[in-house]
Amino acid sequence: MSDVAIGIDVGGTKALALMVARDGRVLGEVQAPTPHDSKLAPGEATASALAELIKYLASLHGLKASEIPVGVGLPGLMRKDGRLAYAPNLQTASGADVGSLLSVALQSSLVFYENDANCAALAEHEWGAGRGINDFVMVTLGTGIGGGIIADGALLRGRSGFAGEIGHMVVEAHGVPCTCGGMGCWERYASGSGLRRLIRDAAKEGRLSALLERAGSAEDIAPEDVTDAAAHGNDEAIDLIRQVSWWLALGLANLVAILDVGHFVIGGGLSRASDLVLPFAREYLSDLVEGYDSRPEITITSSMFEHRSGAMGAALVAFERYP
Amino acid sequence: MSDVAIGIDVGGTKALALMVARDGRVLGEVQAPTPHDSKLAPGEATASALAELIKYLASLHGLKASEIPVGVGLPGLMRKDGRLAYAPNLQTASGADVGSLLSVALQSSLVFYENDANCAALAEHEWGAGRGINDFVMVTLGTGIGGGIIADGALLRGRSGFAGEIGHMVVEAHGVPCTCGGMGCWERYASGSGLRRLIRDAAKEGRLSALLERAGSAEDIAPEDVTDAAAHGNDEAIDLIRQVSWWLALGLANLVAILDVGHFVIGGGLSRASDLVLPFAREYLSDLVEGYDSRPEITITSSMFEHRSGAMGAALVAFERYP
Question: Cβ of A318 under 8 Å from any chain B Cβ?
Answer without folding.
Answer: no
